[in-house]
Amino acid sequence: MQRLTNKRVVLGVTGSVAAYKAGEVIRELQRAGAEVRVVMTRGAEAFVAPLTFQALSGHPVHRELLDPGAEAAMGHIALARWADCILVAPASADFLARLAAGRADDLLTAVCLARGVPLALAPAMNARMWEDAATRANVQTLRNRGVLFLGPEEGGQACGEEGPGRLLDPVVLAARLGELFEVGSLQGRRVLVTAGPTREPLDPVRFFSNRSSGRMGFAVAAAAAEAGARVTLVAGPVALEAPDRVERVDVTTAEEMLAAVSRFAPEADVFISAAAVADYRPREVRPGKIKRTGESLTVELVPNPDILATVKSRWPQVFCVGFAAETGDLDRHARAKLAAKGVELIAANLVGPAAPEAGGVFDAEDNALTLYWEGGSMELGLAPKDKLARALVAAIAQRLAAWEAGGGGTVVSLHRR
Q: Which residues sit opposite 301 in a β-bridge?
């Protein structure tokens, strides 16, 4: 499991000859699923050009404490708030001394002092410098403040000497850093979610659509990311902000949604089809606005693609979850959809007048779901959509594990009706 999936790591690089190894550290953190931002000290720039780390991380390197372009938003504070953890690798003897003294005269020490997240230091220096009494005292001071030390290890050094002071191997560093975080129920999984309505144009100003707000699908995407998954959200036209740490792709029509889903489905572990896709679209889209004539107007509708069924038929290895919004006879319709689509799970709910306690569900804060799978079902009672989404994601993770282990066997912790 990749404990660093979706985690934000600020990587500090200081003036040690081992600074060149920070490029490998970036790569290992990224392989483990982390997003990395690099902060360099002036000493580090004497060993490695910032452009190297910019190319590897895919983001500009942060270097100056008082950067006019960043300080309008308190750049050093913003970096500390952005991070889930801070790793300084390599951490030089000078950096340890300045941090132990509480200095904040460069960007990296300021970020470390402003943090509210774990700080890990990976020292790299000459063996005698590491064993010096001043360095040992600084290390103990920092440990007493809750700072985690990763290494150093023993071995040959750039100066030709042997002993403790080598930077810990980047693979080991990434693994040890990951131990700071708990494993989520979908840790390291790739989850694809659709949300919101689609709009099917009739003419340049009119379209067919539905009342979906997208709130449930957005809540599910956020809950999946919270559970450690890498989430791609394909969203119809909605007035919602993208959840944190979720890649969002905006579409309008059902055909556009299918095209976007088809780009990401081959790499997905789980597909959650929460969008309210229009079942039909006008056969003809008029080039100009249809004028009122006082006469009846007939519009021929043709079926839209069935996105959920398409994904399951093309990529059977993907665990597929469908949604069913019904105005009555929930059990019968949901089980029929489960069989017709050939998917692993259906999350069904009543809408409109059939769901007065949830305000009709559409654009409401609360919802309730009944989950159906082959041979079982369970109730997720009325709750705010964010809490309901977490419960749904937990159930999906359990069903996924059972499906992978034995082709959809019963999971004891899910209460069957």
A: 282
Report the CATH superfamily, name and number, of domain 190-283+296-406.
CoaB-like (3.40.50.10300)
Kind plus residue range of the DSSP H or E element containing 324: strand 319-326
Q: Are both 8-178 and 190-283+296-406 of the same fold?
A: yes
Does the 8-178 domain belong in CATH 3.40.630.30?
no
Catalytic choice (85, 112, 159, 320): 159
DSSP string across 41-89? -HHHHTTS-HHHHHHHHSSPPB--TT-TTTGGG-HHHHHHHH-SEEEEE
User: How is the chain split into domains, by residue range?
Assistant: 8-178, 190-283+296-406
What local confidence, expressed as pLDDT, does residue 143 receive? 95
DSSP per-residue letters across 119-139: EEEEE---HHHHHSHHHHHHH
pTM for the full model? 0.79
CA 359-238-313 angle, to 5 degrees, is 95
Q: 57-95, pLDDT tens digit by residue?
A: 999 999 988 766 654 445 668 888 899 999 999 999 999
Of the pLDDT bands very low, low, confident and very high (cuts 50, 70, 90), residue 120 is very high
Residue 159 falls in the annotated catalytic set: yes
